[in-house]
Amino acid sequence: MRLVVCDDHRLLLEALSLALGESGQEVLAMAVNTTDAVAAVREHQPDAVLLDLNFPDGTALGSISDLRQACPTAKIVILSASADHSVVAEAIAQGAHGFIGKDRPVADIVGALEQARRGQTAVDPVLLQQALRPRPAVDDPLWVLKFLTDREWEVMRCIMDGQSTDEMAESLGVRRSTARTHVQNLLAKLGVHSRLQVAALMTAHGTPEMWPPRMR
Q1: 129: pLDDT confidence band, cut at 50, 70 and 90?
Q2: For 85-102, what is each residue's pLDDT tens digit?
Q3: Which of 18, 37, 189, 191 is 20 to 30 A from 132 in CA distance terms?
Q4: What stretches of 25-175 show up as alpha helix (H) in DSSP?
Q5: φ/ψ (deg, to 5) at 148
Q6: Of 150, 141, 158, 149, which Cα lies nearest the Cα of 195?
């Protein structure tokens, strides 16, 4: 993968970038603040961005939208020394594709980046479950839609079109096993157990405005 890595601790930044390079990734640029990261992402158009969470002037969550505008196709994975489920929820809501601890081995970090690149939410399942558990006061059965990835919205469309797993794999341009994984991720987020339940939920409570503009 072609990466931009951002961390305000230069020594850690250089060591992590070196380790990522030795693992077969290509680090296009290193940035010590989010402003430089946005500029690097705009210039290099990387496959993914590995972004530290905490900086002296606050968290990096506010820069996620800027990074996505700079390169809409880049997957953003947050790197953090702590894993508070409310922060994970906010990161995903802002558009991050993954969240992984700094205490994890480089192989796990690469795995999270690869998972995000495939269109999956690269967060430990238990942590993701904790992040998505708190519900808003308003009784909205589809409140979790704001946490869906672009790929999961595409899977949703396939389900609503009544596609089989084979048809879905062809539509998405992925293997059958990958299509099944995407479906399972979607079911887990919505808290249902079957595609029929997904369709029933969206039919009963969904509106055209809930879908991303490009899919309406």
Answers
A1: low
A2: 778 878 887 888 989 988
A3: 37
A4: 34-44, 64-70, 85-94, 106-117, 125-132, 150-160, 165-172
A5: -75, 145
A6: 158
